[in-house]
Amino acid sequence: MEQQFISKLSTNAFSLEKGSVNAKSPSNIALIKYWGKKKNQIPTNSSISYTLTNSYTETELKFSPKTSEEFDVEVYLEGELKESFAPKIITFFERITAYIPFLKHYKFEVHTHNSFPHSSGIASSASGMSAMALCLVQIENILGANLTEEELLQKASFLARLGSGSACRSVYKGLVEWGENNFIEGSSDLYGTKFPDNEIHEVFKTFHDTILLIHEGQKSVSSTVGHNLMNGHPYAEQRFIEANDNLKTLIPILKNGDVKAFGELVEHEALTLHAMMMMSNPAFILMKPNTVAALEKLWEFRRETGKQLYFTLDAGANVHLLYPAIDAEAIEVFIENELKKFCQNGNYIKDKVNF
Length: 355
Ligand code: DP6
Prior knowledge:
Blueprint: E1 19-32, E2 37-38, E3 42-43, E4 47-65, E5 72-77, E6 80-81, H1 86-96, E7 106-114, H2 124-142, H3 149-163, E8 175-178, E9 192-194, E10 208-212, H4 223-228, H5 236-256, H6 259-278, H7 289-305, E11 310-313, E12 319-323, H8 328-339, E13 348-352
Parallel strand pairs: 5-7
Antiparallel strand pairs: 1-4, 2-3, 4-7, 4-8, 5-6, 8-9, 10-12, 10-13, 11-12
Bound molecules: ligand DP6.
The site of ligand DP6 has 17 residues, from α4.
C-alpha cells in the first residue's frame, strides 16, 4: 500500500535549479480522538476532525542544489532562525526519504508563520507538518512527477502523517477522517480522507470553535509521549474499540443534524482522552484548574439556557467551545462575561469550521 507513494521521479532526472514554493494549511480539532499509535505512525483507532479557518500555518520552502550527502535544513519562525526546530524536520525527512527522493539533493530553508501565537498551546504540528508536506509535493511536481490534484493532496496527507499523525487530517477542508475501518468507504491508516459534505447536515457546517487559551506555554507531556503510554495501558484495547464505535455512532448524527447527540458524544470523547492520561503509568494531567472551572460553568450555562454549547479538549489545557451559528450571539456574550476570566491574560481565539 505504501508503495503507491514511492516517487516516479528518477534520481538523476532533476533539473538542479533553485526555487521556492508556498503552502498555507489550517489546524484541526478532533471530534473522535487519535490517541495511541503503532510503528510508522499507524493509528490504533479511527479519528475525525473539523478543519479550522483562522488558525493556520503559512510556509515558504526555498530549495537550492547542493552536493553534500547529509540533509541540510534551516527553519525560520516568524523570520527568526530556530536552530532547535531543525532536528524535527530532519527526523521527518528521514521518515519520508523513501517517498521524496530529492531531499538530499537540495539545501532547504523553511520560512514559517503561524496565525496564532506560538506559545498559545494550539497544536502547530498539525498545520505546520501539513504545510511542509504540501510544499514538498509541489516541488515533486516542479521536478516532473505530474501528480494530479487528487494524487498531490493524498500524497501530502500521507507525508504529513509521517510528520505528525493529526497533520494528515489538515490537508482537506470540512470533516476529515483518518484510520481504516469497515464503515467508511476509502478510509485508510495511511492518509486522511475527506468525509463527504453531502453526508453532513447544514447545521454542522456553521459551527464555531472558540478556543479558550487557559494555559500558554510548554505542555508537561508531549502528544508523542502520551501516545506511547497507551502501549500496555490497562484500558487501551477497550478505548480503541470504543473510539471506532463512537465514530460509527457519529455518522448518522452528522447526517440528521442532532446537535445534542453530537455534543454529548464529542464531550465524552474529550473526557475519555483525559481519563486515559490520568490512568497512564506514569499518570499525567494536562487539564488545569481553570480548564475544569470553565467546563463546570459551561454545563451550568447549558442547563440554565438550553443553548447548544459543547466543548472538546485537545492534548492540553485549552478548551474548544463548539456551537452552531444560530446560538452564536448569546454564547459569545456568555464567553466574554463568564469564560474569558479563566483564560491566561484573557486570551481566546475565535475560529470557525472550514467548509
Ligand atoms: C489529542 O498528531 O500531535 O490532538 O503523531 O505523535 O505527532 P503525533 O501526535 P499528534 O496527536 C494528536 C492527539 C490529539 C487527538 C487528535 O488530534 O486526534
